[in-house]
Write a structure and sequence with these properties.
The structure holds 2 protein chains of 2 kinds. Chain A has 5 helices and 3 strands; from the N terminus they run αββαααβα. By secondary structure, chain A is mainly α. Chain A has one domain: BFD-like [2Fe-2S]-binding domain (Arc Repressor Mutant, subunit A, Orthogonal Bundle). A two-stranded antiparallel ribbon of chain A has the order 1-2. Chain B has 3 domains: 172 residues, FAD/NAD(P)-binding domain; 54 residues, no CATH class; 86 residues, D-Amino Acid Oxidase, subunit A, domain 2 (D-Amino Acid Oxidase, Chain A, domain 2), CATH 3.30.9. Helices cover 29% and strands 26% of the residues of chain B. Chain B has an 8-stranded mixed beta sheet with strand order 5-6-4-14-15-16-13-17. In chain B, strand 1, helix 1 and strand 2 form a beta-alpha-beta unit. In chain B, helix 1 crosses helix 8 and helix 2 packs across helix 8. The longest helix of chain B is centred in the N-terminal third of the chain and has 21 residues. Chain B is globular. Classes of the chains: A mainly alpha, B alpha/beta. At the A-B interface, helix 3, strand 3 and helix 5 of A face helix 5, helix 7 and strand 17 of B.
């Protein structure tokens, strides 16, 4: 079974397996932000669209509390990747 | 949580965690670290990750050279299971004005006196180091191979785990809300949920240092300022060193995984704890960086965020004990370069507390809080 966990990829951007996530949870690391910083899951091209909910579900299972009670990490722009050349032309002055 | 400690460290960034480790390895017992959020959730985990030794004063040279030396063996020393990803791929610093050329010449003379092998490059020679550079307007540049970058998350966790193994108690999600000062070396630190009696308080609260100071009645003239940053998708190697332009006020680097990270300083940024992000930053930063490194126009931003510089009036850290309260120490006001000098900073604070001879004795009179009252500001010419 443990071999299988290594093959289950939770974060495709940073290539993080379910085993890595569960190992961290077993070490007592149960903050999504900590898991993100240690594995880079959620910082890649998809911005956590795949892994965020999977990891939250794992934390929820581990801690035995509902997902909505777990501190989510912050959502960051952009929603899709943008070329710097295109951004350079943007005349945005407002926050 | 316990209710008594010898030392309470406020702040779980790289500075706080490194101090915890340095004290614990000197056999100080009963150390508690309090972090309002999670470890490296503040400036450390949001920083550009660069480490440079190209400074213009003896003090900053000593702090940074000592720190780099330590970074070279840190992973091994701390027995950390992951790679802290220290890469000495250099800092490239272009000069665009006569004034910058003069300043860089002075800097390089001092840097070489300290044994650094900093190179002076013509625009043509610069292309060998940064092939995608647009040399328009470039007068000269300096390059130092032994500068570099490393992973701030892993460095902080490495210090934290080593400190925990030595018995340090670290509590996250414990926000300090007030401090009672009973007498010298006798404090009570209150979090929202708990109270801790202690003999020594260390303010390593980064962007919140001035607020922690106020709680203890210590006026610290630091303020916080948002600095924004963005990162692209990973690409094949485009350039190796950190490119840091004081003229354009930006820095950029391609990380080991191929992503390009970049940030600019905004002179109009208001003071405060805002950690939001803006489209205007992404636009301006892209414009400036692509002007100097044109091929980056085709790279794509996937993420932007921000963090707080804890600015001091002379853009130089405050490291030492409060003049009016014995036992209240500060390691704050790093003004955007705390991560890179964390190893030396933590050693100095630990040496002060343990009454050891200081690795850099002049810190006591040059980086203390009292310098602002005495009017003896520290002048570092090489800061963004």
């Amino acid at each position: 079974m443990s071999d299988k966990l290594e093959e289950i990829i939770v974060c495709r951007c940073a290539d993080v397996s379910l085993k890595e996530i569960r190992d961290l949870l077993d070490q007592g690391i149960t903050d999504l932000d900590d898991i993100k910083r240690l594995t880079r899951a959620g910082m890649g091209q998809c911005q956590g669209k795949t892994c965020r909910n999977l990891i939250l579900a794992e934390i929820s299972k581990k801690k035995g509390i509902p997902i909505q009670n777990i501190q989510d990490s912050r959502y960051r722009p952009p929603a899709i990747a943008l070329p710097l050349g295109l951004l350079s032309e943007e005349e945005a002055d407002e926050e | 949580m316990k209710n008594k400690a010898q030392v309470v460290i406020i702040g779980g960034g790289v500075i706080g965690c490194a101090i915890a480790y340095e004290l614990a390895r000197r056999n100080v017992k009963d150390i508690v670290l309090l972090e309002q959020n999670t470890l490296c959730s503040g400036a450390t985990g949001r920083c550009g990750a660069g480490v440079r030794q190209q400074w213009g004063t003896e003090m900053n040279l000593k702090l940074s050279i000592g720190s780099v030396k330590r970074f070279e063996t840190l992973q091994e020393e701390l027995g950390y299971e992951h790679d802290i990803e220290f890469e000495q791929s250099g800092y490239f610093m272009p000069a665009y004005t006569e004034k910058q050329v003069e300043q860089f010449k002075k800097n390089i003379e001092l840097q070489r006196k300290f044994g650094l092998k900093v190179e002076w490059l013509s625009p043509l020679e610069s292309l060998e180091i940064v092939p995608i550079l647009n040399t328009e307007g470039l007068r000269a540049a300096t390059f130092h191979q032994k500068d570099g970058h490393l992973n701030p998350f892993h460095v902080t966790f490495a210090y934290a785990q080593a400190a925990k193994r030595l018995g340090v108690n670290m509590y996250t999600h414990e926000e300090v809300v007030s401090i009672d000062v009973f007498s010298d070396q006798h404090f009570a630190v209150y979090t929202k949920q708990n109270k801790l009696d202690c003999n020594i308080v260390i303010n390593a609260a980064g962007g919140w240092s001035q607020l922690v100071g106020k709680m203890a009645g210590v006026e610290i003239p630091t303020y916080s300022e948002r600095h924004q940053i963005l990162i692209t998708e990973p690409y094949e190697p485009l350039f190796k060193p950190m490119v840091m332009s004081f003229y354009h006020n930006f820095y950029t680097q391609q990380e080991p995984n191929g992503a390009v990270i970049m940030g600019i300083g905004d002179p109009n940024e208001p003071k405060g704890q805002n950690m939001g992000h803006s489209l205007s930053f992404a636009a301006k930063c892209s414009r400036l960086v692509c002007q100097v490194l044109p091929p980056l126009k085709n790279t794509r931003m996937i993420r932007q965020w921000s963090g707080l510089y804890n600015m001091s009036p002379d853009k130089t850290p405050i490291i030492g004990e409060a003049p009016n309260i014995k036992g209240f120490y500060m390691a704050c006001g790093f003004s955007g370069h705390g991560f890179m000098i964390a190893p030396m900073t933590s050693v100095l604070i630990a040496q002060m507390i343990c009454n050891e001879e200081l690795a850099i004795p002049e810190v006591l009179t040059k980086l203390d809080l009292g310098r602002f009252e005495r009017g003896e500001l520290f002048m570092e010419p090489s800061v963004v």
